[in-house]
């Protein structure tokens, strides 16, 4: 499959790109700084740009069959998930690309969670108000689109070896929940062909 991966030079994005190439996919890796990716492969094309620029996004997904995004704030701007996702959605709908898999955060709630009061989520939302609002808006962008999307809401990410044991669920996040970047990559790649979580945002943890 021909894929575009946004945020490919991040820790999670680099591992996702490596695993996609190992699986035989043809990958366009979208990064701000190509030197930070440090990968070379015959099936890899590296494109530099800014996901907040609609023209850059549209060029990056040209000819792709599916899109994955691990974009998130690193430095400034801290609030960019919703706007970058809107650019991706607009470009995909324009080009007729259907499948989109993105990373979100476990702290934000969706109706399927049926959450009561959760102290951890409340504290995080209080101290990271703008970031959480941005992620809530990101989900709203997905929900109002016509795409086949999956949003993996992740807890604390670790650099430990992938376990192969992943639980996707709705409910309350716990401080004990964590997910290896390798397992996140495997889950995201699996969503390219699976249908169980289409147009849903499960929490994904080990």
Largest sheet: 6 strands, parallel
Unreliable sequence segments: none
Order of helices and strands: EHEEHEHEHHEEEEHE
Percentage of residues in helical conformation = 25-40%
How far do the termini sit from each other?
Answer: 27 Å
Structural class: alpha/beta
Number of strands: 10
* Whole-angstrom Rg: 16 Å
Q: Beta-strand percentage?
A: 15-25%
Q: Spatial order of the strands in the main sheet? A: 3-2-1-4-5-6
Walk me through the structure:
Helices cover 33% and strands 22% of the residues. With 206 residues, the chain is α/β, with parallel strands linked by helices. Strands 3-2-1-4-5-6 form a six-stranded parallel beta sheet, with helices on both faces. Helix 3 runs parallel beside helix 5. The longest helix is centred in the middle third of the chain and has 15 residues, at 81-95.
Attribute tags:
single chain, 206 residues, alpha/beta, six-stranded parallel β-sheet
Summarize the structure.
With 206 residues, this protein is α/β, with parallel strands linked by helices. It is 33% helix and 22% strand.
Topology of this structure?
Elements: E1 2-6, H1 11-22, E2 26-31, E3 44-48, H2 54-60, E4 66-69, H3 81-95, E5 99-105, H4 119-127, H5 129-143, E6 148-154, E7 156-158, E8 167-169, E9 178-180, H6 181-190, E10 203-205
Parallel strand pairs: 1-2, 1-4, 2-3, 4-5, 5-6, 7-9
Antiparallel strand pairs: 8-10
Helix pairs in contact: 1-6, 3-5, 4-5
